[in-house]
Specification:
This protein is of the alpha/beta class. The protein has a single domain, classed as Rossmann fold, CATH 3.40.50.720. The chain contains eight helices and seven strands, in the order βαβαβαβαβαβααβα. It has a seven-stranded parallel sheet with strand order 3-2-1-4-5-6-7, sandwiched between helices. β5, α5 and β6 form a beta-alpha-beta unit. α1 runs parallel beside α2, α1 packs across α7 and α4 runs parallel beside α5. The radius of gyration is 18 Å and the shape is globular. The model has no long low-confidence stretch (mean pLDDT 96). Bound molecules: nicotinamide-adenine-dinucleotide.
Length: 259
Amino acid sequence: MRLAGKTAVITGAASGMGAAETEMFALEGARVYACDIQDEPGRELVEQIRSHGGNATYHHLDVTDESAWAELAATIRSTDSGDLQVLVNNAGIQVRHGLMDMAMEDLDRILSVNLKGPMFGMRACAPLMRDSGGGSIINIGSLAGMMGHPIAAYTASKWALRGVSKTAAMEFANWGIRVNTIHPGLVNTPLIAGTPSYDAMESMTPMGRAAAADEFARVALFLASDDSSFMTGVDVPVDGGFEAVSSYRRVWQTVQGIA
Ligand SMILES: NC(=O)c1ccc[n+]([C@@H]2O[C@H](COP(=O)([O-])OP(=O)(O)OC[C@H]3O[C@@H](n4cnc5c(N)ncnc54)[C@H](O)[C@@H]3O)[C@@H](O)[C@H]2O)c1
């Protein structure tokens, strides 16, 4: 019960890693506000969690709408006396285009969901967390925010999120709020289903496979819990070694004659 007594907001909770985090956080004793725009799967997930004794409620929240964030904060104030310790900005979208074939409306949409969404979330939730005695914000980045990546708009959004997370870590440290960013590599979720680069990415991953969503959720759990009480402003890749060693691994394999 590593999150006993904590209240958490998780965005993009209806699918993939957000669903795995919602389930795991509730099982570890958190009271979870599961937020998404996919209402049906979001409600089903919450019902399932509650049938196992977990404490979760579903909330329709479009992360791009700052007034919806204000409404969520007001709900937390009225139903939980404003008690909030954890925010996971997990909701994210992708549109698979490079710089030259990207439509500008796609750039705007991706920046709205992947960058403005977490910024609005932090602005709405940090004051509640401050008044609750501190907490932990976890922003979900990507390898696309750690290195050059073929999807231009997505890369822009994740590099920017990584930077603004460090600004937030600086700004909120006096409030006892930690802000860290997790950067997934290849994780089996609907987001990457049918991605043309899946096989290449899997073969370039030193661990030779994609992660399951709950392998990722365990890292989010660590950052949400007091086990990580002195970590803030940090980038945590969860990528089977892709960012650290995949290029040199190919060189090494060639030298060894095993590529
Ligand atoms: N799956 C991967 O391999 C991978 C790799 C790197 C980064 N990521 C990042 O991980 C996060 C989770 O991705 P996933 O793979 O679980 O994807 P997913 O598509 O399974 O889930 C994303 C969820 O976000 C929700 N969402 C989208 N727009 C929203 C909005 N405006 N408001 C609220 N919710 C919204 C969707 O409805 C969906 O439930 C994303 O930020 C993604 O960029 C994923």
